Amino acid sequence: MELLAEKNRKRLVEVVYAAKAGHIGGDLSCLNVMTALYFHVMRNIEPGSTPPLRGGRGQGNVERDRFVLSKGHCVEALYVTLEAKGYLAPSVLDTLGQFGSVLSGHPTIEVPGIEVNSGALGHGLGIGVGMAIAAKMDRKAWHTYVLMGDGEQGEGSIYEAAMAAHKYQLDNLVAIIDRNHLQISGNTEDVMPIDSVRERWSAFGWDVQEMNGDSMEDIVRTFDAIDYSNGQPHLLVSNTTKGRGVSFMEGIAKWHHGVLNEEQCKAAVNEISERIAQLEKAR
After folding, report:
1. Could you report the per-residue pLDDT of 14-39, keeping only the tens digit for each?
2. Are 29 and 242 in contact, with CB atoms under 8 Å apart?
3. Alpha-carbon distance 200 to 159, whole Å?
């Protein structure tokens, strides 16, 4: 999966460069987690396994795990993951940023594999809570995963959802915070401090774990250790680096939605390609 994540990273850089738009810094910081979710964690999500829902849109297997990208501005990372999973043809992904493309700057259900429209920050967890309650009511075994940003934690609706998840003992719900410490207007601790994130969510009654979101090994270990029968919703604080995997972007706030020029794109692709070659050689 580390190799797959690097291949997705290279594709992401190329796609965002071609589109001349995107939130590449946050895309890169959450790409490892997204790769792990789609290729190790989530179940029954193979495309085309059953007839699709919603008049031809979305995934089809009713027993599938659900994923909500609450930090919807990082949809480019989701697009490249869906392409790798087989939901999107390369020819479709190449239309990102073009007039008439089905691919928007935030997730929409017009795109195969996407469950809900998202991107208005603070809404994703509430949607995920509803999905998890539905699974409990129907006595279904599928799980719901919600990926949030750390800058997003300033949205009050998140904490309403957090209280509801505890009340209904949603141990089938996993929320992930991409903790890269940077948002559009700077460092999260300068804009709206959240360094008490573990204590805060524990006080809401959540099972809180921290992981190194830059390490595929630690991501897999943490997801594999989740107890889905403990009566508590789960929060994973994924400690990551903004712009992860492209050295000149790492930890730099301007790459929240920076646009690569041709020279920068070539440098980023070359850097990632070297890691891909090393990983392939080590196989």
Report:
1. 999 999 988 998 999 999 999 999 99
2. yes
3. 10
